[in-house]
Amino acid sequence: MTKSHPGIRPDPARPIISIGTINVDQLMGPIAHWPQPGTETVYPDYEMRIGGGCGNFGAALMALDAHQHIVVNVGKDAMGDWLCTQFGPLADHWHRSDTVTSVTFGLTHPDKERTFLSNEGHSSIFDATMVREMLA
Where would I find the H helices in the chain? Predict the structure, then answer.
């Protein structure tokens, strides 16, 4: 049995700090079979949204109106700009890397399973030095 601690609540003045990766997810489908090389296939569904572990966690905390600090990097490109606009002032201190932003293309299947194709982009150069700078 867990002991209850009445009166102990999280301090809203202390932010939740998340450190990790963020990217752009682009989802398309449903795809029942892999297209033949050299062809174009059109699918009915498409969605572009925040992705990556830290991106998804940060978006969930925003929906809860939680006090948070997100420690991530994004590329210096249109996709990095888009991610920054999704988080507003929370993105003011993010490291902007001299590379493309990581993008994941998710293909949905009729059984609701998904297949992901991702580029390395900015996520591959996220390091401890960037983290220390943003935490300062």
Answer: 53-63, 78-87, 128-135
For residue range 69-92, list pLDDT tens digits in order: 999 999 999 999 999 999 999 999
Contact of 109 with 32, CB cutoff 8 Å: yes
- What does each C-alpha distance from 60 to 35, 47, 70 come to in angstroms? 34, 18, 12
Q: Which two tokens stand for residue 29?
A: 């489908």
Residue 108 near residue 49 (C-beta atoms within 8 A): no
pTM of the model: 0.84
Q: Which long-range contacts (CB under 8 A, 24 or more apart) does 129-133 make?
A: 130/71, 130/73, 130/95, 131/19, 131/71, 133/95
